[in-house]
Backbone:
């Protein structure tokens, strides 16, 4: 199993990123596809549109715990997570890319923690 990290897509790509996977449902604003240097775009592992809109509608940080719980439930029912797990198992380093401004409370953080837990078992 390789190492997993998260990074904003707006940060420059580095060789140390390893396999770069965009995990947002929508393409990030202002990022040209050629410049993004992504290896995969896995929309299916991102939060559902309804959950994403609910979480971002009023930028209320108090929603974070509830968002984490709801997104984790979505991930448990999402078969696309298996494709992501396969990629992680086959690569020494994987960087999950996201566009959110908040580097502490974003879906990529929840996704990374979920994957780490799955890989422990």
Residues:
């Amino acid at each position: 199993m390789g190492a997993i990290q998260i990074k904003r897509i707006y940060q420059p790509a580095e060789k140390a990123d390893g396999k770069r996977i965009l995990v947002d449902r929508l393409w990030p604003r202002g990022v040209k596809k050629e410049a993004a240097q992504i290896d995969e775009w896995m929309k299916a592992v991102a939060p559902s549109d309804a959950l994403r809109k609910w979480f971002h509608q009023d930028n209320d940080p108090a929603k974070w715990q509830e968002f984490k719980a709801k997104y984790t439930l979505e991930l448990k029912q999402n078969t696309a997570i298996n494709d992501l797990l396969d990629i992680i198992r086959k690569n020494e380093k994987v960087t999950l890319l996201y566009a959110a401004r908040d580097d502490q409370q974003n879906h990529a953080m929840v996704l990374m923690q979920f994957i780490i837990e799955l890989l422990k078992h």
About this structure: Strands lie at 3-8, 19-22, 40-41, 93-98. The helical segments are 33-36, 49-56, 64-76, 81-90, 107-120. The first strand starts at residue 3 and ends at 8.
